[in-house]
Amino acid sequence: MAKVLVTGSAGFIGGYVVEELLGRGHEVVGLDNFSKYGPVTHSYDDNPGYRFVEGDARDTALVTELAADCDHFIAGAAMIGGISYFHAYAYDLLATNERIMAASCDAAIAAHRDGRLQKVTYMSSSMVFESTETWPSKEGDERRVPPPLSSYGFQKLAVEYYARAAWEQYKLPYTIVRPFNCVGVGEGRALGEAEVLSGNVKLAMSHVVPDLVQKIVKGQDPLHILGEGNQVRHYTYGGDLAAGIVTAMEHPAALNEDFNLSTAESTTVLELAEVIWAKIKGPEVPFRYVSDDPFEYDVQKRVPDVTKAREVLGFEATTSLDEMLDEVVPWVTQAVHDGRL
Description:
It is a single chain. The protein is α/β, with parallel strands linked by helices. The protein has 2 domains: 3-181 and 236-261, NAD(P)-binding Rossmann-like Domain (Rossmann fold); 196-233 and 265-302 and 319-338, UDP-galactose 4-epimerase, domain 1 (Alpha-Beta Complex), CATH 3.90.25. Helix content is 38%, strand content 16%. The protein is built from 10 helices and 15 strands. It has helices spanning 12-23, 60-67, 83-88, 90-114, 151-170, 208-217, 238-250, 269-281, 307-313, 321-337, and strands spanning 3-7, 27-32, 50-54, 72-75, 119-123, 174-179, 182-183, 197-198, 201-202, 223-226, 232-233, 236-237, 257-261, 267-268, 289-292. The strands form 5 sheets. A 7-stranded parallel β-sheet has the order 3-2-1-4-5-6-13, with helices on both faces. α4 runs parallel beside α5, α6 crosses α10 and α8 packs across α10. The longest helix has 25 residues, at 90-114. The radius of gyration is 19 Å and the shape is globular. The chain starts with a strand and ends with a helix. 49% of the residues are buried. The model has no long low-confidence stretch (mean pLDDT 92).
């Protein structure tokens, strides 16, 4: 079993990744500065195999010290949020995430040279395919299609260039993973001054599923959705994504490779909204919605090719949308009642 450094360990996907690592018997060091949600607790906080360090992933000296004593480094720290983030924090997303990535790579290069670090697993994003006009998007397309228009997508593409450049110059081994539309529990209201309204409800500045649930729970009727609702997404359970990320970290065939991690199932935003509406209000209440003006960077289709992850890693995301929502809807509903959303 390995010792693994996870930056962004208190984040949404990070929480699932730590849980997966501990479940496989790995020892985990988590680093986070609680910048998005504030202090959070997890069921594994007292696990003897887990050590948490409160600190900033931009602190190169700290990350170097932690990584030098670890076999693997999952570089997950980032300023991240839903579509509203791309507009409210366009510059911060670029500048903050660039500083995190430069510090992470500087630390990893030193830890690989002088310590026990074997490889970095980098968290990229489906947004690297933002400007594509052909689907499904397969590994390698990110270098053939026009670069992303959003600062967030552009920076995530830069993450992949960091990974390959650190290998080219310093022989720092890497694996790149691209999660698609994570769905799960654990998201709270993001900290920050920006307010984004959808109808009469302030968005949580996170992702589409918790925002749709909270709007319905708070009684919004008709439901406000962005655009016509024809946007196609692949909603993937956080536990499945974590399994894919850890498998990519462990698998020898993942060395210096990149992988789309996603369910193979396509769902439109309107289909998603209607399913959530029925789960909360019951099938007897007619589904009513209105369309708001869409955001500029609301990509209409984000459809991955998942063949490589299946054939090379043996990974498939198998949790259905219904199963995800049966877990997430009650969690978000309780968070609304508790005043956390």
